[in-house]
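Homework help board

Subject: predicted structure for assignment chain

Our instructor gave us this sequence and asked us to write out the predicted structure in token form, then describe one feature. I got the tokens but I'm not sure how to describe them. Can anyone check?
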Amino acid sequence: MELWIDAALIVLGALLIDAIIGDLPNAVHPLRWMGNILGWLDRRIRRGGRTATRLKGFLSFLLVVFLFGSAAFLVLSGVRIYLGEIAWIIVSAFLLKITFAVFSFRRHCRPIKRDLENGDTAAAAAKVQMIVSRRTEGMDSEHIASSCCETISENFADSVVSPMFFNGILGLPGAIVFRCSNLMDAMWGYLNDKYGDLGFFPARFDDVLGYLTSRISPAFLALAAVLMRMDWRAAIPAARADHGKTPSPNSGWPMTAAAAVLGISMEKKDVYVMGTGPLPTPEDISRCYRLVELSSVLFIIMAGLPLFCLLGVHVQLYVEGAYALVWGLLP
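My token output:
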């Protein structure tokens, strides 16, 4: 087949895997393995002076990228050599899917919505603790719903737009670099004595990688809002006006746009309030993940897929070619 057809099948296949199969079980998910490696490094790295500790954080990032990138490209190059083109497309689609998630928050948030509708806020609070870092025990129904909407909308940029954009321009190497940076930021990107220096590089690098993608995300939320007959005109003005309310320089862009489109407010107590409407109801959780899912599909089809066909697949094949040399050295 033509290479651009292969590339299109990889992206569409990854999207279908995400929709039909979803994420791998946690015990065998590569991101869980990555987290375990980071935890091992965290326990063994001795903090010293600022420069030395920041250097250790940078080298830890390079190590994680090398380990997981090498594993991926050794597999891909071997599959292409020994099993052929079709197998390579299928394995590429599975590996790409690991770097992004469109439909996973539907699976996480539907049980929370159901608990809220049944009046069981304690059960809902326990479940929402799995997807947010704040304390949820004793949280009321509106703030539980807000936590869901905040997480769903923030992850539109982090879990879809960014990895698919970097896959588009750099192939799977770009998606892996972004995913490593984003996970290290989530685990080490805290401004405290323990992680302020160790997590400095991954946190700043994640901000840099997400700068453009977070700022284009409101446009796709607005486009999805047009199709869903929501208030699409409010998305971009709200994002421009209120994105600075979040501590992160990037997360406020999709969050404020989604709040405006949905006509709700999102509140993290003592940190921010965005939007001018009421706090969300359980039904707003469904509206939010449907909005983000449609926005995600639109971005992948309109931007991620054509970029990968034009650019990313060529970079990916170049990197795979370097790893294919390893197979040539084997007896």
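Reply (TA_rk): Your tokens look well-formed. For the description, you could write something like this. The chain has one domain: 3-329. That's the kind of observation they're looking for.
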